[in-house]
Structure formats: C-alpha cells, structure tokens
C-alpha cells in the first residue's frame, strides 16, 4: 500500500578542501569515506533488477545510518554546538556543491529527471534524510507484500508484518517532519522538489495516514479474507471470517477518518506546489496516490459504519453505507449502473483486479492505487452477502447513501509522532578523530566521479522501446 518511491542517486563529493578541523582532523576524511560508500550503494541499488532491490534496502539504510553521525558532526562543528559533550571545531573553507537526482519531479516517460545541484551542508542533510525515509517506506512495502504470499501467513505472522510496516512508516514520518523544518532554514527555496518544505510536510502526512490505516488493518480481517479467496493454493477462505466487536468497529471508523484527513493534507501540500506559479511541482502520480489514499480511508470508514449497522440489525442502512463507500471510491452503486453499463463496468473492474494481482505476484509496482481496488473488493463481498440476506430475511428498505456520507465527522488520531533526534558520534570515535588522518590522500582518490553518468537508467542500458542515438542514449 505505501507509495513506491525510487531511491535517488548522487554525484561524487569530497569534504576535503571544503572543511577543516583543528580539533578533530580525521573527521573530514571519515565523513568523505562514509559518504562515498553511500553513493556507491545507491548506485548499485539502482542497477539491480526490481525483484532484487527489496533485499538490498537493509544495505542502503545501514550505509545512511553510518554516514549520518559524521554529517551531523560537521553541522554541529559549523554551528558551534557540542557532540557527546565535546566541542568540535570545524572551519568552512568553501561551500560544498553536490548534485542529487530528485525522485518526485515530473519527467518525460522513459527518462529520469536530471540531477539538481545544490549548495551547502543543509542541502546534503535534507537529501540524505529524505533518502532514508524513502528506504523505510519501501521496507514497509516489503513487509506488507508478505500478506499476499502464496502461503497465507498465520495471524501472528500477519500481525508482526503489519506492526513492522507501521514502525517503518512512523520513522519515515519523523524524518520528513525534521527535513521540512530543516528546509525552511534555506535562504532560498531549494531547486529540488523532493526537499522543499511543502513536499516534506506532505510526505510526513502521507506516512502518518498510512501508519494509521495499518492499525486498522491489523484487526480488520475482511481484507485478509478477500485475499485468501484469491489465493488459488489456499482453502481456508471457505471458513467464515471472524466478526469484529462492535466497540472496535467504532474505533476503526474514527481511525479511518483520521487517515483520510492526513491524506487530504498531503494532497493539499502536493497540489499547492503544482498550482503555485513559479514553484517546482511534484509528479502527478504522487498527487493521485494521495487522493486515492483519502478515498480509500473514507470508504473504509463507510464500511465500518455499515458493519456497525448490520450488527445492530439494520441491514438496509448497512447496504446504504456500502453504497456510500463505493461513491467515496469513485465507483457506481448497483442502482446507478444500467444492465449494459454494469456488465462493462464489471469487465473493466475484473481486468483491473487481474492486472493488480499480477503486479503483486511480481512483487513490484503494486499498490499504486493506495489500496482503493482492494477496499472495493471487500465492499463488494459484503454487498453480495448483505443484499442476499436482506432479500431472503430482512426485507428492509435501503435508504439513500448521500445523507449518510454527509454525516461523516472528524477522525481520531492514535499516533503521536516522535521528533527525530539526530545521531551523535560516541566519545570513543571522537577521541580517535583527534589524530591526523592516516589515509587522507587515499580518501581523496576514493571519490571518483568518472562514472557518475552510468546510473542514467536502472539497468544501465538503453530504454526498451526507445530509439538509440549516436551518443548511446535513447530517445522516446
């Protein structure tokens, strides 16, 4: 369900010649070495096939976490702050200039956005933190993909995967919030859309919305029941799904509405960038994802209202709530569809479902609709069940869904986002860096930008379906 971010790549950068430290001479060299390790890992990650990138995310996060203490130590030294109760003297010789490739900028199909050059240490810090947040979000996707494995996970495995994904998303939320505050300190708006304050605040709201929905998903057994029904190697789907207690249904309704509010905030931040004259815009796919996430969240709230009504014996009202959920998702209700239109709509929907199932089977590029189609499947399952029950037993009148949608109130937040605390170097590491660097020349030679252009496309070759040019690139 979380958005499928791409990890950025960056140009070579040596801090040697840009900074100088009399108190900790080795700090500049160590920061340069760790930075180059990160650059190489990001470059390697991009060249991997999509099916192999998930297993490489741990290496990416480890490299960033190793690099960040040195990066923040340089920042503290320039600001005159102490690190682990020790003063660090860092002198700026010249501003660093580094290029990062934005992942959220609009681009022509088949081509990536060009790298954007930025000046100053804050530009580097914001991009590194944003890359870490992207990696955490992708790790959450890996966890949630296990819910659709060929072997249906046990309830314990399912709960563990959802909670791990939730923790990753909350980490991403704190990183985006910190980066938003950091980017507001720029003297001029950053040229890269990824690290603008509006984008970062939108991404923080997006991660918080997804984390809130995962709290609901943990105990919402209807999506798991629908997933089991699609699993050809599973027979447990024949067993009736467990009912949700009425008390928890009310809580899930509030949480789903809160998730929708966070998604609406994210959509407003992203759309504001696009509608502001002279500002840099984010890609339309991210704007659409935030909009779909809001629709999915509000449709879940309608479904839980329907479950609450059905538990109270109000089957007609429950079916009306399902119709409200369909409208929130952008689908037509049974009454709105004519006989011919209904057949065509069902054919189109079944084709979309099969297409999404193939994406899940490949483990890449799935969930780009923010769970909208999955929620539609759950609503359709309950709609069939309750309509049959109402026709045979209850015979209750089904009211209009529009007045019910108008009663949707505000949600309830369950997460209290934690502030990101920049990591510090420990006392032993700082003590070692008081000595002059032993491999300063080797570190300078380690930073080689001769192959920076090799990561222009993920597989290192021509773009499929494009025309090769004389320079070896591709024209779409």
Q: What order do the helices and strands come in, and which of them pair?
A:
Blueprint: E1 19-20, H1 26-47, H2 50-53, H3 57-79, E2 82-83, E3 86-87, E4 91-92, E5 97-100, E6 116-119, H4 121-145, H5 155-183, H6 197-219, H7 221-230, H8 246-275, H9 284-311, H10 315-329, H11 339-362, H12 372-394, H13 402-406, H14 427-432, H15 440-446, E7 467-468, E8 474-475
Helix pairs in contact: 1-3, 1-15, 3-4, 4-5, 5-6, 6-8, 8-9, 9-10, 9-12, 10-12
Fold and architecture overview:
The chain is mainly alpha-helical. 58% of the residues lie in helices and 4% in strands. It is built from 15 helices and 8 strands. The strands form 4 sheets. Strands 1-4 form a two-stranded antiparallel ribbon. A hairpin with a 5-residue loop joins strand 7 and strand 8. Helix 9 packs parallel to helix 12. The radius of gyration is 25 Å and the shape is elongated.
């Amino acid at each position: 369900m979380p958005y499928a971010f791409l990890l950025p790549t960056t140009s070579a950068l040596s801090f040697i010649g840009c900074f100088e430290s009399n108190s900790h001479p080795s700090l500049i060299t160590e920061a340069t070495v760790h930075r180059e390790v990160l650059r190489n890992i990001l470059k390697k990650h991009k060249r991997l096939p999509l099916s192999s990138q998930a297993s490489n995310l741990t290496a990416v996060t480890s490299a960033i976490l190793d690099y960040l203490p040195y990066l923040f130590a340089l920042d503290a030294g320039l600001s005159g702050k102490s690190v682990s109760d020790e003063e660090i003297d860092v002198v700026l010789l010249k501003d660093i200039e580094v290029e990062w490739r934005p992942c959220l900028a609009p681009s022509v199909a088949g081509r990536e956005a060009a790298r954007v050059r930025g000046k100053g240490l804050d530009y580097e810090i914001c991009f590194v933190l944003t890359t870490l947040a992207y990696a955490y979000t992708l790790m959450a996707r890996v966890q949630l993909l296990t819910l659709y494995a060929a072997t249906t996970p046990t309830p314990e495995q399912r709960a563990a995967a959802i909670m791990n994904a939730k923790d990753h998303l909350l980490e991403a939320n704190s990183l985006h919030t910190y980066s938003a505050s950091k980017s507001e300190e720029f003297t001029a708006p950053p040229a890269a859309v990824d690290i603008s304050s509006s984008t970062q605040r939108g991404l923080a709201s997006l991660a918080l919305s997804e984390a809130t929905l995962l709290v609901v998903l943990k105990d919402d057994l209807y999506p798991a029941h629908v997933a089991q029904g699609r699993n050809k190697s599973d027979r447990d789907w024949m067993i009736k799904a467990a009912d949700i207690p009425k008390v928890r249904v009310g809580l899930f309704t509030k949480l789903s509405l809160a998730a929708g509010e966070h998604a609406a905030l994210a959509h407003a931040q992203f759309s504001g960038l696009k509608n502001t004259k002279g500002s840099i815009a984010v890609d339309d796919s991210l704007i659409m994802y935030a909009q779909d996430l809001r629709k999915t969240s509000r449709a879940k709230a309608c479904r839980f209202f329907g479950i609450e009504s059905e538990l109270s014996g109000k089957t007609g009202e429950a079916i009306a709530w399902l119709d409200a959920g369909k409208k929130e998702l952008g689908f037509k209700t049974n009454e709105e569809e004519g006989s011919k239109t209904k057949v065509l709509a069902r054919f189109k929907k079944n084709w979309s479902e099969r297409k999404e199932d193939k994406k899940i089977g490949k483990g890449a590029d799935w969930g780009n609709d923010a769970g909208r189609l999955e929620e539609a499947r759950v609503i359709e399952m309950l709609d069939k069940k309750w309509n049959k029950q109402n026709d045979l037993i209850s015979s209750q009148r089904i009211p209009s869904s529009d007045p019910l949608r108008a009663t949707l109130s505000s949600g309830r937040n369950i997460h209290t986002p934690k502030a990101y605390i920049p990591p510090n170097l420990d006392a032993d590491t700082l003590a070692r860096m008081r000595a002059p660097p032993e491999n300063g020349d080797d570190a300078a030679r380690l930073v080689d930008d001769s192959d920076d252009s090799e990561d222009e496309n993920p597989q290192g070759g021509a773009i499929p379906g494009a025309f090769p040019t004389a320079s070896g690139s591709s024209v779409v």
